[in-house]
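Supplementary Note 2. Why include the ligand at all?

Several targets in our set were suspected to adopt different conformations when bound, so apo predictions alone were not considered sufficient. For every target with a known small-molecule partner we therefore ran a joint prediction. The input for flavin-adenine dinucleotide is given below.
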Amino acid sequence: MGLNVRNLRQAGNDRAKAVYFVIMSDYQTAIIGAGVVGLAVTAELAPRGSTLVLEKAWKFGQAASSHNSEVVHAGIYYAPGSLKARLCVQGNRLIRQLARDCGISYAQVGKFIVAASEEEVEYLHWLKENAPANGVTDLRWVSSDGLRKQEPSVRGQAGLFSPTSGIVDSHALMVHFKTIAEQSGADFVFNAEVVDAKRLPPTSVGGPGGVSGYELTVRDADGALTRITAEKVVNCAGLYADRVAAMFGMDVQALGLDLLWAKGYYFSLEGGHKLGIRHLVYPVPEKSLKSLGVHATVDLSGAVRFGPTAEYMEQKIEDYSFSDAATTPVAESISRYLPPVDASRLNPMMAGIRSKLTRPDQPPRDFYIREESDRGLPGLVNLIGIESPGLTASPAIAKYVAELLR
Ligand SMILES: Cc1cc2nc3c(=O)[nH]c(=O)nc-3n(C[C@H](O)[C@H](O)[C@H](O)COP(=O)(O)OP(=O)(O)OC[C@H]3O[C@@H](n4cnc5c(N)ncnc54)[C@H](O)[C@@H]3O)c2cc1C
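The joint prediction is reproduced in token form.
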């Protein structure tokens, strides 16, 4: 099966059109990757000009965007001034607004962060003091008794309550962005993997130093190659964003932009409904923020699940299969804030893979979102290391990318 969208307007393979390509791109903007971030970016950019989304999977949102906790974070943990902090806080507000205005399923269930020791209580104090610098001013201190009143199964020395943390139907959010993008005329091509990219020489269009652009080589499900051109490219390729950046000639290793992958497992708990959990319940996270810890989340139907674990993967193989090796550590983690859990009652639910710039045991790194003119790649925006809170931040990331390309 060849690429569709009128076979990408007969692009690339048609030699007779070669001159046309040089003076006029097929599309103003090409977006690589149709996860929640690529879709949000497309919804934002499509009203400004012709936009094409190239997605290697058969459908949108098959990777991290459908293998996550669906938590709309408040922005508590991240370094003040970082993109993670700013875009998470803005994204939280935007998602709540979208839920109100566009009927996307969302529940503002609120979240407890629970301290299990004196040392963790200290950390909670630090978090509470840090949060206003990120614009999070609504955290409430909860005593051990207060915790028990709100969540009778949860034990802890103290807790922080975040009222603006919630859960969202990530699929509905993606459908919303895709619909908006299509209404503005964006084209989507699935089974279309970008396998190579090159910068085209500047042309006379737009005057001296004017429009140039990029040629992308796209492989379809049958292995056939097609070339298309775009003036601007946004790399939203998730786990492969470093590989895509390298296709444009960037030395990602030298730049410290090569990604590590970290897998996480989720479990349901037999009889878990008896715990009566109504809020999101998180432990105090590791300082490296490798993950936010094995937490209890309720989904929109009220069912509780536990996860995700976080282990760096030795080999970067996109494998969502399950291992039950994680059950014992998960049971131990949960037992820090809930009554002891028998590992044999944990049932596998789902696995997700995080794209991480942060090296093991190093301080957390920020999102890398950058227009690359100063690396000789004008009009290319790379988004690399868009791990959590990328779902929450997605609508804000889209606005930020649009600003970078303005
Ligand atoms: C276990 C886990 C839990 C998480 N929990 C939360 C949470 O509770 N709250 C939150 O805010 N965030 C959370 N996140 C983070 C969030 O899921 C991600 O930040 C977000 O989904 C990233 O979206 P994306 O579009 O950048 O990436 P993806 O969803 O991975 O999409 C990238 C797309 O690019 C495509 N692609 C890759 N290479 C190519 C190529 N060469 N050509 C064409 N297409 C290509 C892929 O097929 C994929 O569809 C979690 C993540 C994980 C893994």
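The first strand starts at residue 27 and ends at 32. DSSP finds ten helices and 20 strands in the chain. Comparable summaries for the other entries are listed in the accompanying table.
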